[in-house]
Amino acid sequence: MQKAAIAKLESTLTQTALFDVVDISGQLRDAREHLARLERGFERKKSALGVGEQVNLCNLQRDAFLRLCMNALALKQRLRDCLRQRKFEIEKLERSY
Questions:
Q1: Residues 13 and 24: beta-carbon distance below 8 Å
Q2: What is the pLDDT, as a whole number, of residue 48?
Q3: What is the pTM of this model?
Q4: Residue 95 CB-density burial (10 A; 0-12 exposed, 13-18 middle, 19+ buried)
Q5: What is the 3 state secondary structure string of the chain?
């Protein structure tokens, strides 16, 4: 998710006007720092696991059923968020009308 945000910022940086470059560059730097912190935290937690737990983690990462379930859960959460956001947009429109 963070990598996609960084790619989007990089593509926006190449397409924007000169006065927006500073703002987008700052956002890009912050996104890269956040990604680096996430990766360091993941590696630190992964290295804290024992040998058996690391094997279990590798097996879980390769499990197709678990991957499918997690992707379905992520899609469900995104749909709920979009519906919730749309609900608030409609409420604002109704109040202003």
A1: yes
A2: 92
A3: 0.56
A4: exposed
A5: CHHHHHHHHHHHHHHCCHHHHHHHHHHHHHHHHHHHHHHHHHHHHHHHCCHHHHHHHHHHHHCHHHHHHHHHHHHHHHHHHHHHHHHHHHHHHHHHC
